[in-house]
């Protein structure tokens, strides 16, 4: 065995609580989301899984979640790396709309394809809207890297270089690696780890605040398909809540 990978979707955000398509919008955690981060840290401690390195997106809901986890574990000193490649999927013109209002104006097949499918992106945002060109955290991105919408397949494509160049390097060095990201960036990562079909990807739900452990062999392939949630009962309940949305 080479390394241990821990995947953690950020705690509940204000946009999650309001049922909003968030994407790259920088929503903070709710009080419940902060509690979920603390609970995740306690699960890691109980399982004797102390991360050696952490990777997050550039969005505050993952950054805050990671900070809370490391604070509870007394490991704020370990290396943390952040990348836009771990950001949530860009929801294009759906960004900022509630799931309820989108469903009211869209047929069920289209809505499900936008939200759950591998290859269908939502409608694109108009150029110059919903894309934070004036945001310092993205100032180094080349113009062709700015999305106007993304399918899950697009997220997987922009995630792969970071997985190969950064996360895999830590795993190959036998570092326990914590990745704190988003529902869709983690779905894309799991789809690659587990070699999921399009139908399996559509059925995959990642619950907030639930650590998912993957033990990997020397070729960085998962020893157990689907990984293992540290609290499987709560993870199943929270995943079902995501599915009902």
Report on the architecture of this protein.
With 245 residues, this protein is α/β, with parallel strands linked by helices. It has one domain (3-210): 3-Layer(aba) Sandwich (Rossmann fold), CATH 3.40.50. 41% of the residues lie in helices and 11% in strands. The chain is built from 9 helices and 6 strands, in the order βααβαβαααβααββα. It has helices at residues 14-18, 31-46, 60-72, 99-104, 108-116, 152-172, 183-194, 198-203, 232-244; strands spanning 3-9, 53-56, 80-82, 177-181, 212-216, 228-229. The protein has a 6-stranded mixed beta sheet with strand order 3-2-4-1-5-6. α2 packs across α3 (60-72) and α6 crosses α7 (183-194). It is globular, with a radius of gyration of 17 Å.
Class per helix and strand makeup: alpha/beta
Global Rg: 17 Å
Number of domains: 1
How many helices?
Answer: 9
Order of strands in the sheet with most strands? 3-2-4-1-5-6
**Total count of strands:** 6
Query: What percent strand?
Result: 5-15%
Can you tell me the CATH topology?
A: Rossmann fold
Determine the mean pLDDT. 93
What is the ordering of alpha helices and beta strands? Answer: EHHEHEHHHEHHEEH
In CATH, the architecture is 3-Layer(aba) Sandwich
Question: What is the share of helical residues?
Answer: 40-55%
Give the CATH level 1 class.
Alpha Beta
Poorly predicted tracts of residues: none
């Amino acid at each position: 065995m080479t390394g241990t990978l821990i995947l953690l979707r950020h705690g509940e955000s204000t946009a999650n609580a309001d049922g909003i398509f968030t994407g790259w919008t920088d929503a903070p955690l709710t009080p419940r989301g902060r509690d979920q981060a603390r609970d995740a840290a306690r699960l890691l401690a109980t399982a004797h899984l102390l991360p050696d390195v952490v990777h997050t997106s550039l969005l505050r809901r993952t950054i805050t979640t990671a900070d809370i986890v490391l604070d509870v574990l007394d490991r704020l000193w370990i290396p943390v790396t952040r990348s836009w490649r771990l950001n949530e999927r860009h929801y294009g013109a759906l960004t900022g709309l509630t799931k309820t209002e989108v469903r009211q104006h869209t047929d069920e097949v289209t809505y499900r394809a936008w939200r759950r499918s591998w290859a269908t992106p939502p409608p694109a945002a108009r150029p110059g809207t919903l894309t934070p060109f004036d945001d310092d955290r993205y100032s180094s991105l080349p113009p062709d890297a700015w999305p106007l919408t993304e399918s899950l397949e697009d997220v997987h494509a922009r995630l792969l270089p970071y997985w190969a160049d950064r996360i895999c390097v830590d795993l190959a060095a036998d570092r326990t690696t914590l990745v704190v990201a988003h529902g869709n960036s983690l779905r894309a990562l799991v789809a690659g780890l587990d070699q999921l079909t399009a139908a399996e990807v559509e059925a995959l739900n990642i619950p907030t605040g639930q650590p998912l452990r993957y033990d990997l062999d020397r070729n960085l392939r998962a020893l157990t398909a689907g990984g293992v949630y540290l609290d499987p009962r709560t993870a199943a309940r929270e995943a079902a809540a995501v599915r009902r949305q």
